[in-house]
Design goal:
It is a single chain. The protein contains 8 helices and 9 strands. It has a single domain, classed as Leucyl/phenylalanyl-tRNA-protein transferase, C-terminal domain (Aminopeptidase). The longest helix has 16 residues. The chain has 216 residues and is α+β, with helices and mostly antiparallel strands. Helix 2 packs antiparallel against helix 8, helix 3 runs antiparallel to helix 4 and helix 5 crosses helix 8.
């Protein structure tokens, strides 16, 4: 489906996520947007994030500063800053609109004043649809994911959709579901309520590591 067939709006995007599809473009320079509904879907079970000993040490060291929703557009721009990207200007603007509506959120990873990593996604009910992440420093995206999973658990989310399963995500605990199994989980999740901000302030590094160990 091309964006010329429909007027793409934040509301249409939210509906698409609620029925299991998400938007992509062939490249940053392609104005068209198409919908994707993979046969196999990647998800992070809420208690399955794997923190290795080296990652646990890095988190506990507090070498990176974490924030939430403080630089959303910068995170999306960071995710698009690669040779090939599916984030074209239309998609970029739509996610920023969803963020202003409180329906898209980001995790930022900082080294001093430099944004070195981040993750962003969309929420519908108790489902979080992870869209993309980036890293410009060692383990930055992994640290961001650890804080994100901790926040989603605290907020009552039951589904963390990663779209596709990569080797990188599998090593961190993500799994793959059939389309039918994914849609069953999605249908349950969107009927529930969750709150991305329920956790409040950024938790301590020690708390993130400890809770992840307890739930994995």
């Amino acid at each position: 489906m091309k964006d010329g067939d429909l007027i793409l709006t934040p509301q249409l995007l939210l509906h698409a996520y609620s029925v299991g599809v998400f938007p992509m473009s062939e490249s940053r320079d392609d104005p068209d947007v198409f919908w994707v509904d993979p046969k196999r879907r990647g998800v992070f079970p809420m208690g399955s994030f794997h923190i290795s000993r080296s990652l646990a040490r890095r988190i506990r060291a507090g070498s990176y500063r974490i924030s939430f929703d403080s630089a959303f557009a910068q995170v999306v721009a960071g995710c698009a800053d690669r040779a090939e990207t599916w984030i074209n200007p239309t998609i970029f603007d739509l996610y920023c609109e969803l963020h202003h509506m409180g329906r898209a959120h980001s995790v930022e990873v900082w080294d001093g004043d430099a944004l070195v990593g981040g993750v962003y996604g969309v929420t519908v009910g108790a489902a979080f649809f992870g869209e993309s992440m980036f890293s410009r420093a060692t383990d930055a995206s992994k640290v961001g994911l650890a804080y994100l999973l901790d926040r989603l658990r605290a907020g009552g989310f039951t589904l963390f959709d990663t779209q596709f399963l990569t080797d990188h995500l599998a090593r961190l605990g993500a799994i793959e579901l059939s389309r039918a199994a994914y849609h069953r989980q999605l249908e349950m999740a969107i009927r529930q309520t969750a709150d991305f901000n329920r956790q409040g302030d950024v938790p301590t590094p020690q708390g993130v590591v400890q809770r992840s160990i307890q739930t994995s």
